[in-house]
Amino acid sequence: MRKFYNTLPLLLISLFISCSNDMNKEKKNSKESSIRTTQRNLDLRNPQGADYDACDCNKRSQKIIDKTIAFRLKFESMDELKQDQESKKQVRKFAKEYIELVKKCFEINNARLMLDSECNNLKLLEAKKDSLYRLGIQIDQGETIRL
């Protein structure tokens, strides 16, 4: 009987551990199922099949910023750009396109956008945005950009 009392706590602990592991497996399975469902829903929302992985988003963001910088450099100063209504519309279009891309990419990738990699060069993207800011265009404001 004494041996039974000595082994009883060990039996209870092992029972508790095995039950908690089963619950963890169920939680993991439900999370994986939820992730698969979310991915399927995202695929349905994007019927064109366009990729919005972190690398693609970075490449597209840089392309929009490069177009905006090239457009801005056609003018001697911000005042000259501001005087032309069509130019202001074009800059707003670039900014709107950029914000829509950022929203879509963040919706799909979340924190993966913040991981620096060979194809997701965050430093280069930030440097280009800084160049654009120095030229007087704050693209992060979207179509509400003040010109």
Can you describe what's shown?
The protein is mainly α. The protein is 73% helix and 0% strand. It contains 5 helices and no strands. It has helices at residues 2-45, 54-72, 78-83, 85-109, 122-134. α2 (54-72) packs antiparallel against α4 and α2 packs parallel to α5. It starts with a helix and ends in a 13-residue tail after the last helix. Residues 41-49 have low confidence and may be disordered.
The total count of helices amounts to 5
Strand content: under 5%
Oligomeric assembly: single chain
| Class of secondary structure makeup | mainly alpha
Element string (H = helix, E = strand): HHHHH
Summed over residues and divided by their number, the pLDDT gives a mean of: 78
Coarse morphology: rod-shaped
Largest sheet: none
The helix fraction, in percent, is over 70%
Quote the distance from N terminus to C terminus. 87 Å
- Which runs of at least 5 residues are low in confidence (pLDDT < 50)? 41-49
Query: What is the tally of beta strands?
Result: 0
Q: What integer value in Å does the Rg equal?
A: 26 Å
Which labels suit this protein?
rod-shaped, 5 helices, 73% helix, 147 residues, mainly alpha
Blueprint (SSEs and pairs):
Elements: H1 2-45, H2 54-72, H3 78-83, H4 85-109, H5 122-134
Q: Can you give me a brief rundown of this structure?
A:
The protein is mainly α and 147 residues long. It is 73% helix and 0% strand.
